[in-house]
Specification:
The protein has 270 residues and is of the alpha+beta class. It has nine helices and ten strands. The structure holds pyridoxal-5'-phosphate. Pyridoxal-5'-phosphate binds next to helix 4.
């Protein structure tokens, strides 16, 4: 076969997309973006010149992202999800660059963004997938020193960001209040879930994100995961991950989904 041997030895990324009633396994936002965003997006989409390539530098999107972080446009590079941002960084960087992945940055009370300047080899990646309720759009970005950002443009594929995505991201940044409210709601639900889990026979790890990691004490993690799935509740089985023996991870969902999860886990581990 004309496929790389080292590739065939690798497993690939797996997060099962099973059809269940309560899906709390991939850290998506539990609710969609606001209707006003959807309407504005549809209106702009209808005006796209589809026979033309999109703006290669994504100038309007970059400028909107830059404004939201009080940095300059030349300190911002956007790509198809922060995963592509990371891939682009790997194509461009030599050892010595520190990358801080802040996919869950808005849920935490600290950010490395304050440490970005022109003389420090440090970058911060962010995504629209989690806090912005836009996992379907596949959009992420990195903030860093302008001399490094300029090199990322050279290794990215030409026109890598399509017109629809540039519009989606730029418009989302006009709904920051909505995003902040959603984050506050998720953080308060997270604390409620953590407090309840803390009363059960589980080890609960502190979280600054939209998920909670925990380890059942009286049953194997994998068995607890299966018993939840039997009740049509899907969470993430991390029990086979390095240093996470028996650990499971639940995404913060809507209050109703969280109630269903808490009731089920109480029955399963009591
Ligand atoms: C969800 C997540 C991301 C986001 O990836 P996208 O490609 O932007 O969807 C990045 N890093 C971590 C650790 C994540 O959990």
């Amino acid at each position: 076969m004309t496929v790389r041997d080292d590739l065939r030895a690798l497993e690939g990324y797996h997060s099962p997309q099973v059809d269940v009633r309560v899906r709390l396994n991939t850290n998506e936002a539990p609710t969609p973006p606001p209707t006003a965003w959807r309407d504005a997006f549809a209106a702009e989409l209808s005006r796209v010149e589809w026979h033309r390539y999109p703006d290669r530098s994504a100038a309007a999107l970059r400028s909107a992202i830059a404004d939201s972080h009080h940095v300059r446009s030349d300190q911002v590079f956007a790509a198809n999800g922060s995963n592509e941002v990371l891939q682009t960084l790997l194509l461009a960087a030599q050892p010595g660059l520190l990358v801080v992945d802040e996919a869950y940055g808005q849920f935490a009370d600290w950010s490395a963004l304050t440490m970005i300047d022109e003389s420090t080899p440090l970058v911060v990646t962010r995504t629209f997938s989690k806090t912005w309720s836009m996992a379907a759009s596949r959009l992420g970005y990195v903030i860093g020193p302008s001399w490094l950002i300029a090199e990322l443009d050279k290794v990215a594929l030409p026109y890598h960001l399509d017109a629809a995505k540039q519009i989606a991201g730029r418009l989302a940044l006009q709904f920051t209040d909505d995003m902040d409210a959603r984050v506050a709601q998720i953080v308060s639900e997270r604390e409620r879930i953590a407090a309840t889990l803390g009363t059960l026979d589980l080890e609960v790890f502190p979280s600054g994100a939209n998920f909670i990691l925990f380890r059942p004490r009286n049953k194997p993690g994998r068995q607890v995961w299966q018993e939840l799935l039997d009740r049509s509740i899907l969470i993430r089985d991390c029990s086979g991950w390095p240093r996470l023996t028996d650990c499971l991870r639940v995404t913060v969902g809507t209050p109703e989904e969280n109630d269903e999860f808490l009731q089920a886990i109480r029955e399963i581990v009591q």
